[in-house]
Write a structure and sequence with these properties.
Number of domains: 1
Structural class: alpha+beta
Largest sheet: 4 strands, antiparallel
Helix content: 10-25%
Shape: globular
Strand content: 15-25%
Order of helices and strands: HEEEEEEEEEE
Amino acid sequence: MIVAVVLIGVAALSSASGSTGAAKTVKTGHAIGKTVLVNRAGLTLYSLSAETKGRFICTGSCVTVWHPLVVRRGQKPTGAHSLGTIRRPTGQTQVTYKGKPLYTFSGDHKPGDAKGEGFKDVGVWHAAVVGASTQQAPAAAPQPTTTSPGYGGY
């Protein structure tokens, strides 16, 4: 009888620890009046229009404002269709959506924030809208154009 209770307890612990490893890399949330991809904390995920065909623009000091969504090498991202990975110049494995690297914005602090939407610098930042094409329309109220050191395109 005691052995059965111990085995049940061990099985329960095993399944509980296994569930943390199966946590989704991304989820869906709501921002800008649309369904968007968000990270585990619920923060909006973005992509940069100029980052295409494996070319990274957001490097150096850019990543202090735009934080790459990374996973462990060999880990497959989960939680939405069209997710993949790409290797950053630093060697990190970054999550992609429809081939575009995903980032969070340092100006977003809570779920539903999308202060990076339409931000212009060496391209335009857009929230990763679920089901939308990778070519997204400009935001209704774009932020002023800025130049920032650390972008690989300069």
